[in-house]
């Protein structure tokens, strides 16, 4: 039986990052993954392929609607969907190959198969062919991520009625794409096909987008998407979905119990994800679960209710984000090594890769009001930013919320071009408990989009220069 210091089950952003950090800290490390490629959902069928498609569709949209403003004239513009998908596949292959390289570089032993903890300290690895091998380690980490949630009674076939994994492989633009769920996944993948010509209808049970984040910014995002052609049916629930040859008929009901049928040629079920730990041995080991059926762990060490067994990322409570899992994995490995690894859950950035992008970190106005915290709000609009105007990108704004007494930054919300890159400055500000004045007095290069962040910080102090 091969023996290691650490065995990690799951090769996604939590698993492979934890493996690398553990190996760096001197632990003899093994990683077990059922997929042929490492990288988990994020690299294989999630973050990376969806962003590849989003980038391609953004370029097509710019060529169609904005290039002429720059003096770039294109006749007979066309989109080769097959080539777009092929490029996406190559991006995924390259990124996954990079993770394989990291395993070799750090001398991490890779096991291809499903890992099951048969008892504390021992993992059975079973291959797709049915072969099994027993390996052991003092520390075992469960980092098996999550899978899409399916609606009961909805017959997913992967062709007309799809989950997010399936729609990434479409090679034809749907005429009418119906999406169940107005979350990040639905809006991002809906954006890809809307830009390429599909009619997109989004059915959502909630009353608006992103009910847990800042209402004013969520409403702005909703308005921008509607302007791009999205149709939203809020406060509607899906009753049935039936495929009839090349069409899908979706019967929905509003809050007044009025029913109607929507007909499209493709349906995406994007109502969220659930923790995936099937076959890992959670039940057999008797690991304690939370009321939401996630693995219960110590918030500092990530140890489960069984000594020597740990869990992190999507299988535990918290936002299902790749970067959260990666940060937890680093902290977990450092704690094993006696270091002070930690994760600041108050400074996790959230991003929606629509266009313009939406990103935020920290609290929204409604959260602060509910907590009785007095705050100052500062805003700055991208239409007043020089770099944004040079790019011909006028939509969006930055909003900063700072404690009225201490001036400490409590939340930053951005809708605008490359918000995904700018939010990191805000996350660092929250991490180091910076004040709005700290940000306002930090010199920003000109002309840059990030000047909008500085101007919003200035505005909380009522001395914004350009607004």
CATH topology call of the largest domain: FAD/NAD(P)-binding domain
Report the sheet with the most strands, covering strand number, pairing sense and barrel closure: 7 strands, mixed
So, CATH architecture of the largest domain?
A: 3-Layer(bba) Sandwich
Helix percentage range: 25-40%
Relevant CATH superfamily of the largest domain: FAD/NAD(P)-binding domain
Uncertain residue ranges: none
* Count of the separate structural domains: 3
% residues in beta strands: 25-35%
Based on helices, strands and strand pairing, what is the structural class?
alpha/beta
Global geometry = globular
Briefly, what CATH class of the largest domain?
Answer: Alpha Beta
Q: What is the straight-line distance between the termini?
A: 68 Å
Average predicted local confidence, pLDDT? 97
Number of helix segments? 14
Rg result: 24 Å
- State the total count of DSSP E strands: 22
Describe this entry's structure for a reader.
This protein is of the alpha/beta class and 467 residues long. It has three domains: 2-148 and 274-343, FAD/NAD(P)-binding domain (3-Layer(bba) Sandwich), CATH 3.50.50.60; 161-271, 3-Layer(bba) Sandwich (FAD/NAD(P)-binding domain), CATH 3.50.50.60; 347-460, Enolase-like, domain 1 (2-Layer Sandwich), CATH 3.30.390.30. The protein has 14 helices and 22 strands. The strands form five sheets. Strands 1, 2, 3, 4, 5, 6 and 17 form a seven-stranded mixed beta sheet that branches. The protein has a five-stranded parallel beta sheet with strand order 8-15-9-10-11. Strands 18-19-22-21-20 form a five-stranded antiparallel beta sheet, with helices on both faces. A hairpin with a 2-residue loop joins strand 4 (114-119) and strand 5. The mean pLDDT is 97.
């Amino acid at each position: 039986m091969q023996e290691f210091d650490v065995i990690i089950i799951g090769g996604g952003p939590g698993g492979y990052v934890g493996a690398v950090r553990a190996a760096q800290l001197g632990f003899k490390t093994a990683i077990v993954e059922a997929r042929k490629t490492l990288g988990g959902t994020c690299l294989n069928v999630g973050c990376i392929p969806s962003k590849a498609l989003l980038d391609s569709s953004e370029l097509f949209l710019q060529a169609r609607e904005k290039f002429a403003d720059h003096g770039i004239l294109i006749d007979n513009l066309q989109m080769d969907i097959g080539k777009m998908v092929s490029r996406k596949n190559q991006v995924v292959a390259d990124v996954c190959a990079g993770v394989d390289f990291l395993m070799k570089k750090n001398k991490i032993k890779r096991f291809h198969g499903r890992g099951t903890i048969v008892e504390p300290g021992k993992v059975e690895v079973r291959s797709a062919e049915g072969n099994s091998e027993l390996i052991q380690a003092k520390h075992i980490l469960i980092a098996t991520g999550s899978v899409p949630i399916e609606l009961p009674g909805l017959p997913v076939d992967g062709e007309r009625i799809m989950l997010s994994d399936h729609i990434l492989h479409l090679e034809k633009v749907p005429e009418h794409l119906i999406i169940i769920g107005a979350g990040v996944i639905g809006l991002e993948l809906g954006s890809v096909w809307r830009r390429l010509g599909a009619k997109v209808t989004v059915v959502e049970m909630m009353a608006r987008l992103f009910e847990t984040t800042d209402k004013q910014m969520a409403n702005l995002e909703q308005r921008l998407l509607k302007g791009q052609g999205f149709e939203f049916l809020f406060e509607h629930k899906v009753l049935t979905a039936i495929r009839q040859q090349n069409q899908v008929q979706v019967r929905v009901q509003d809050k007044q119990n009025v029913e109607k049928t929507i007909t499209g040629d493709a349906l995406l079920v994007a109502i969220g994800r659930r923790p995936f730990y099937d076959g890992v041995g959670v039940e057999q080991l008797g690991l304690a679960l939370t009321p939401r059926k996630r693995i219960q762990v110590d918030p500092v060490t990530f140890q489960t209710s069984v000594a020597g067994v740990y869990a992190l990322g999507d299988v535990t409570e918290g936002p299902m984000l790749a970067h959260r899992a990666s940060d937890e994995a680093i902290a977990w490995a450092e704690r094993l090594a006696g270091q002070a690894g930690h994760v600041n859950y108050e400074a996790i950035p959230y991003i929606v890769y629509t266009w313009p992008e939406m990103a935020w970190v920290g609290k929204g106005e409604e959260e602060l009001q509910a907590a009785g915290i007095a705050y100052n709000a500062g805003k700055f609009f991208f239409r007043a930013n020089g770099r944004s105007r040079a790019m011909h990108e006028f939509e969006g704004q930055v909003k900063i919320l700072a404690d009225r007494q201490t001036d400490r930054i409590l939340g930053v919300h951005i809708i605008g071009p490359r918000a995904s890159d700018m939010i990191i400055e805000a996350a660092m500000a929250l991490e180091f408990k910076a004040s709005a004045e700290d940000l306002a007095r930090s010199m920003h290069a000109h002309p840059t989009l990030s000047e909008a962040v500085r101007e919003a910080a200035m505005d909380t102090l009522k001395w914004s220069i350009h607004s």
